[in-house]
Write a structure and sequence with these properties.
Order of helices and strands: HHH
Largest sheet: none
Shape: flat
Structural class: mainly alpha
Number of strands: 0
Radius of gyration: 19 Å
Number of helices: 3
Strand content: under 5%
């Protein structure tokens, strides 16, 4: 009785989140979060960057933006 959250409470919250957002949107959020963490770790490990290091990151950001626009267009159709 002293426990604030039991496993049943957590499962109920998870079920409500899945119903509200849907599994596809949650998967996309997870992928975006994972990419952000990976990018942050790479930035922290590289220390100072040169202009050569910045070029691949700019290309990745462009591809990511294009994919987001395409996903947004599909969701409106």
């Amino acid at each position: 009785m002293g426990d604030l959250f039991t496993i049943q409470h957590l499962l109920l919250i998870l079920l409500i989140v899945v119903l509200v957002f849907g599994t596809k949107k949650l998967r996309n959020i997870g992928a975006d979060l994972g990419g952000a963490v990976k990018s942050f770790k790479e930035g922290m490990s590289s220390g100072g960057t040169t202009t050569e290091d910045k070029k691949p990151l700019e290309q990745n950001n462009t591809a990511s933006t294009t994919a987001d626009v395409n996903a947004r267009d599909k969701s409106h159709s």
